[in-house]
Specification:
The structure is a homodimer of 151-residue chains. With 151 residues, chain A is mainly α. The first copy, chain A, is 61% helix and 7% strand. The first copy, chain A, binds a DNA duplex (30 and 30 nucleotides) through residues 44, 46, 63-65, 73, 75-81, 83, 99-103.
DNA sequence: ATACATTTAATGTTACAACATATTTTAATT
DNA sequence: AATTAAAATATGTTGTAACATTAAATGTAT
């Protein structure tokens, strides 16, 4: 569906404004879909992203700082997201020995199982991340353009 | 800057996952920039978007429903956003005569002046909406790909 | 060694998003 | 006409984002 119809705005000032609005709208659209899916697993989107970062580190722990570095939304509150994950038993948090300012955040077996379960149930989603309608070369083009936007 | 470096993740499962993450990251990146700019005008991003919708209707009023239709984030709380804009004097809200369930939301002169002021001060921003690094044809490509993602 | 600066994480606070529910008015059904 | 359904907006509630501040540990300089 064309962005003009999605937000019922027939014209834009120029193609750049249209691209900007289209980008914001589409990203939001994808995010809503993903959030809806993860609600079935009692997970918010930021929580899911943190879990994936921790799986990427496993079996090594991650510090809160490392999590922030790898998060999409840098301003988000990593410490409190970890709180939630600890409360749900998907993550452990222990003070680091070498640098007692930092903290070792480690995904648990249950956390890994949860991610595995999500992977299996949402195979299509995970294979294409909501990009089913794109060819590989289109996805590559998109990556190039997005990198270019950020300069 | 490549997305790999932005979030310090050297590889992705496939080009689709990479495009998905890139899209989320870039949209968030643009949003943060815009939010920062609008803070100078005591405006949040949703408030600014509603103001622009109302300018698009001017001199006709808009209902809350029309605002929701045209908003990028449909789940957002249009009624309360209008509250804020009324409190700041940039918008008026009066009960509609023909259908007393609905409400006429109208941008004020001050509201129009605010937008004009923003337009003038942020000329570059507004001309390209943060897409300075894109050619016209790239912006068009981007629009096509984004429309395709949403099916 | 002491004093000062920096780093890391946690916490306090405010505003807003998300979701559900209520209220008022209009439309539809019998 | 009365009853019920639907529509439009407002409001209540909960959780979280955004931002600032604090607290503790480490690094650095004199």
């Amino acid at each position: 569906m064309r962005i003009e119809d999605e937000i019922k705005q027939p014209t834009f000032r120029n193609v750049f404004q249209k691209a900007y609005i289209n980008l914001a709208f589409t990203a939001n659209w994808l995010q809503m879909q993903a959030a809806q899916t993860f609600k079935n697993y009692d997970l918010t989107l930021p929580q899911f992203n943190v879990l994936r970062i921790l799986r990427g580190q496993h079996p090594n722990p991650a510090t809160v700082n490392l999590i922030i570095e790898r998060m999409l939304d840098k301003t988000s509150n990593a410490s409190r997201i970890v709180d939630k994950l600890v409360a749900k038993g998907w993550v452990t948090r222990t003070q680091c020995e070498h640098d007692r300012r930092t903290v070792d955040v480690l995904i648990t077996e249950e956390g890994l199982n949860l991610l595995k379960r999500i992977d299996e149930c949402e195979q299509t989603l995970n294979a294409h991340m909501g990009m089913q309608h794109l060819s590989e070369s289109e996805a590559e083009q998109l990556n190039q353009i997005l990198d270019k936007i950020r300069g």
